[in-house]
Structures are given as C-alpha cells and as structure tokens.
Amino acid sequence: MSRLLAAILTCVAAAVLATGTAFGIVAALEATPEQQNVPLVTFPDPPAQGPSTAPGSDAG
Fold first, then answer.
1. Per-residue model confidence (pLDDT) at position 54
2. What is the value of pTM for the model shown?
3. How far apart are CA 7 and CA 9, in angstroms?
4. SS3 per-residue string spanning the chain
5. How confident is the model at residue 50 (pLDDT cuts 50, 70, 90)?
6. Can you tell me the distance from the alpha carbon of 19 to that of 13, in angstroms, rounded to the nearest whole number?
7. Alpha-carbon distances, residue 46 vs 4, 35, 41, 49, 55 (angstroms)
8. What is residue 26's predicted lDDT score, i.e. its pLDDT?
9. What is the largest CA-CA distance in the chain?
10. Is 8 left (phi over 0), alpha (psi -120 to 50) or beta?
11. Among 12, 37, 44, 50, which lies 20 to 30 A Cα-Cα from 58?
12. 10 Å Cβ neighbour count for 39?
C-alpha cells in the first residue's frame, strides 16, 4: 500500500509542478514588453515608369 501511495503522491506532485511551470512561463511571456516591428533591411522605391519602351519588348 505504501508503494501505491508513493506513486500517487509522485504523480500529483509532478502534475502540480508541471502546472506551476506552465503558469510561470505564460506569466513571464506576458511580462516582456512588446517588440517594435522595425525592418532590418529597406529597399528604395523603384522610380515610376510608363509603358515599357525597351527595344525588343514587342518582338514576337
């Protein structure tokens, strides 16, 4: 009977520890400040172009 009681107490302790760890992780993630969405690389806007007038573009 004592082994069964030890096994049950071990399972209960493991469940309590896992639940506490999960709540702690969630609390830590919610406590971190929101990161700014700043791109690391930016590309210049291409110049505005009209219809394509490149030579050979309408060859077919």
1. 61
2. 0.51
3. 5
4. CHHHHHHHHHHHHHHHHHHHHHHHHHHHHHHCCCCCCCCCCCCCCCCCCCCCCCCCCCCC
5. low
6. 10
7. 73, 29, 16, 9, 20
8. 92
9. 92
10. alpha
11. 44
12. 6
- Main-chain dihedrals φ then ψ at residue 58, nearest 5 degrees: -110, 20
Phi-psi region of 56 (alpha: psi -120 to 50; beta: other; left: phi over 0): left
Q: For 13-38, give one letter per residue: b (16+ CB within 10 A) or e.
A: eeeeeeeeeeeeeeeeeeeeeeeeee
Q: What pLDDT, in 10s, does the model give residues 1-46? A: 799 999 999 999 999 999 999 999 999 888 877 778 888 888 888 8
pLDDT at 6 (0 to 100):
96
